[in-house]
Design goal:
The two termini are 25 Å apart. This protein has 3 helices and 7 strands. With 133 residues, it is an alpha+beta fold. Strands 1, 2, 3, 4, 5, 6 and 7 form a 7-stranded mixed β-sheet that branches.
Length: 133
């Protein structure tokens, strides 16, 4: 199983806001995040995803395409410019990114998830805990 990364969707208070921002970045040439250092376990991330945290919950993921170089000696993380909704799971906020083992990653939600994306994340989390999603 591949290794994944987690990252707080800083400045985004909803899944809809994050989706709009990703669409904007896609029109500007792709979804690229920059960081200071290449992850030490980069070889294990092959085929992994970046899981987004909004309001202390893992809510969606974007597949990682590759790692490259960015300006100023930084590292670029190239992502597919789409969000794949996952069954929400509580996750504490953190700075930067953290690793997520493949066995610990939440499963993808079925369908396009449009109706779920419109719900408040707290409600989605409660419905998921009750096995209603």
């Amino acid at each position: 199983m591949p290794l994944h990364l987690t990252k707080v969707a800083y400045g985004h208070d909803s899944l809809e806001h994050l989706r709009d921002r990703i669409a904007l970045r896609e029109s500007e040439g792709g979804l690229v995040l920059t960081t200071r250092y290449l992850p030490k376990r980069v070889a294990e991330i092959d085929g992994g995803s970046l899981y987004w945290i909004i309001k202390h919950q893992l809510v969606a993921r974007s597949p990682i395409l590759r790692f490259g170089e960015a300006e100023g000696g930084r590292v670029a993380i190239h992502l597919e410019p789409r969000l794949i909704l996952v069954n929400p799971r509580p996750k504490r906020a953190h700075q930067g990114w953290r690793y997520l083992e493949g066995a610990d990653a939440p499963v993808d939600m079925g369908g396009d998830g449009e109706g779920v994306a419109a719900m408040p994340l707290a409600l989605v989390g409660k419905l998921n805990a009750l096995a209603l999603l």
